[in-house]
Amino acid sequence: MIFGRSQRGKPPVEPVTLKILVAGGFGVGKTTLVGAVSEIRPLRTEELLTEAGRPVDDVSGVEGKHTTTVAMDFGRITLREDLVLYLFGTPGQERFWFMWDELSEGALGAVVLADTRRLEDCFAAVDYFERRSIPFVVGVNCFEGSARYPVEMVRQALDLDADVPLVMCDARDRESVKEVLIGVVQHAMAQAADRRRPVTT
């Protein structure tokens, strides 16, 4: 592009943008996931954990964590010239959940990251997307040293509907994250197709 015009004389393409949320409990790997796959340097709104926040910040199981997302993480992936995916990582702590309504506006779907050591931390995210009928995929972030459980056992523990995809992933690995995001898009498209299908009596 030179001065806003393409070198071959073609008008610039206005891309379609899709928005996907990345949600889950505190310290589950949301910021890591966005950073692993974003083509730009992710926008992060992290602050240091302090003694003042100790009574409300439960760091059980993530004692080595020293920062927390207070608004959102933002990343971008260009799938093709006319299609761009925006990723918004939500804050995991309850005191920042008021941000979720704003971030979920217009979202195509969501990833709910889960940690098998603290599965209960992702219940709030699962409930949130179920109540708002936002398509979501559960990605079990396989931390080093954590126990591995069969997919169906994790599904049962989370009490997921049968049509909600559940996949094992590594939030640090670009290819693994891409597979999760592809799963979200496919799931959202399938749900949209179901809603358009005429009801037969």
Automatic annotation (TrEMBL):
One of its GO terms (molecular function) is GTP binding. The keyword Nucleus does not apply. InterPro entries: Gliding_Motility_GTPase (IPR052705), Gpn (IPR004130), P-loop_NTPase (IPR027417). Keywords: GTP-binding, Hydrolase, Nucleotide-binding. It holds the Pfam family ATP_bind_1. The keyword Coiled coil does not apply. Signal peptide: none annotated. PANTHER family: ATP/GTP-BINDING PROTEIN-RELATED, GLIDING MOTILITY PROTEIN MGLA. Belongs to the GPN-loop GTPase family. This is GTP-binding protein. It comes from Streptomyces tendae.
